[in-house]
Amino acid sequence: MLIIWWFWSLLAICASDSFRNQAENIMRTTPVIDGHNDLPWQMLTLFNNQLRKSEANLSALAETHTNIPKLRAGFVGGQFWSAYMPCGTQNKDAVKRILEQIDVIHRMCQLYPETFECVTNSSDILPAFRRGKVASLIGVEGGHLIDSSLGVLRTLYHLGMRYLTLTHNCNTPWADNWLVDKGDDEAESQGLSPFGKLVLNEMNRLGVMIDLSHVSVATMKDALQLSKAPVIFSHSSAYSVCPHRRNVPDDVLQLVKSTNSLVMVNFYNQFVSCSDSATLSQVADHLDHIKTVAGAGAVGLGGDYDGVTNLPVGLEDVSKYPDLIAELLRRNWTETEVRGLLAENLLRVFSAVELVSNIMQVPEEETIPVEKLDGSCRTFYGHSRAPSIHLQIGALLASLASLVFSLHLL
Ligand SMILES: *[C@@H]1O[C@H](CO)[C@@H](O)[C@H](O)[C@H]1NC(C)=O
Ligand SMILES: *[C@@H]1O[C@H](CO)[C@@H](O)[C@H](O)[C@H]1NC(C)=O
Ligand SMILES: *[C@@H]1O[C@H](CO)[C@@H](O)[C@H](O)[C@H]1NC(C)=O
Ligand SMILES: [Zn+2]
To answer: Which residue stretches of the chain have pLDDT < 50?
Structure first.
């Protein structure tokens, strides 16, 4: 009896090991391309962005979910690093602060050239991985970080931004966030405002992926309907598995399917199980559900490592992705489906976005109505306003003076 029990246990262990081995074999050629990691935010809050401090050394850093040995063990070959600043910066120093977070990502690539290679297009990701690097890309998290300016949007693109999350946990003057659906914020734009639609068009023109994590359902639907290219959810899970408003409901998953878009599943316990604790198997449930509703081409990974406070048992840090892949293989996902989840679905969306882009088209020059802008520290150079009677008299006197002056010159 004991022998039989021992035999079956051994068989079970061997079987699980074989899934784990199969996972690693797949990941040696198709690594993880993860949609959202907040290590740059940790660099700010732990080290005030002083990356060369000895405690900040990414080879040894222990207090974070992410460090270089863990990325290697997790077969991470591509990472969208999150350039994030909280909503408290809106109408304050948002633009300066986001420039600093983008600079941190650039400096990570410079300081660890044997590990990180900053890339900006879909065709450079896998070659960087094959050279032993983590291809590093920039996602800007929060529409408030462009301060309602298409000029800022374009400039962030030039600095390497390849997705923009349309909102964080606050409305922008042009897009509503998920707290509207929760009843904690007022709807202001009922989705995207007319200026929000210009932002979206300009992102299509540049080739910046539209990220719908954190936005309201109305904003999701507007963007899915208007975008000329597929969109992403860089770090969101399935609403019908865990009814949290940060997750994606099934009717939106249908639109994800019909537009060839992508949901990169978030591992935060609150989004996985709607409670403080969760397991790796529950993350697999989200992946199964999205695959069932939207198809195997619609799933990706956006762990939200270093942006969240608790993570499932079995997915504690970035070294654990192979265990999740082993679980999916155990659930009969095919190798093709797994490679799609790991990297190929994201590469498909990213290259479709690049194909739609047309940087030669003329840039949009419309501006947001000035009364939509808040904050006491603004100047208003360039905004045309009906001249006051005082200004008109001033202008009249000035032109008289210049007439006299030019007559004098003659
Ligand atoms: C980090 O530590 C490793 C190992 O001690 C060392 O080789 C490397 O030069 C350090 N890197 C930085 C950027 O300080
Ligand atoms: C990708 O970006 C690199 C670096 O800017 C560039 O050399 C390469 O031509 C780009 N590839 C494509 C297909 O645009
Ligand atoms: C996987 O497939 C095998 C063989 O077809 C079947 O016996 C098993 O029940 C399936 N497992 C799941 C979780 O669907
Ligand atoms: Zn987020």
So the answer is: 387-395, 398, 404-407, 409-410
* Residue the block writes with tokens 């599943």: 265
Please name every residue paired with 210 in a beta bridge, in sequence order, or none if there are none: 164
Q: Are residues 95 and 189 in the same domain?
A: yes
Determine the Cα–Cα distance for residues 281 and 298; give it in Å rounded to an integer.
19
Q: How many domains does the chain have?
A: 2
**Catalytically annotated residue among 117, 141, 306, 327:** 141
Residues 328 and 401 in one domain: no
Side-chain half-sphere exposure of 192, counting CA atoms within 13 A: 22
> What is the pLDDT at residue 136?
99
- Which atom of ligand 3 is found nearest the CA of 330? 13
CA atoms of 211 and 300, how far apart (whole Å): 13
State residue 327's pLDDT score. 98
pLDDT for res 6: 64
Nearest CA, atom 3, ligand 3: 332
Q: Which residues, including other chains, have CB under 8 Å from residue 214's CB and lie 6 or more apart?
A: 141, 142, 165, 166, 167, 168, 169, 177, 178, 246
Please indicate, yes or no, whether residues 277 and 294 belong to a single structural domain of this protein.
yes
405 shares a domain with 356: no
Q: Which domain holds residue 408?
A: 379-410
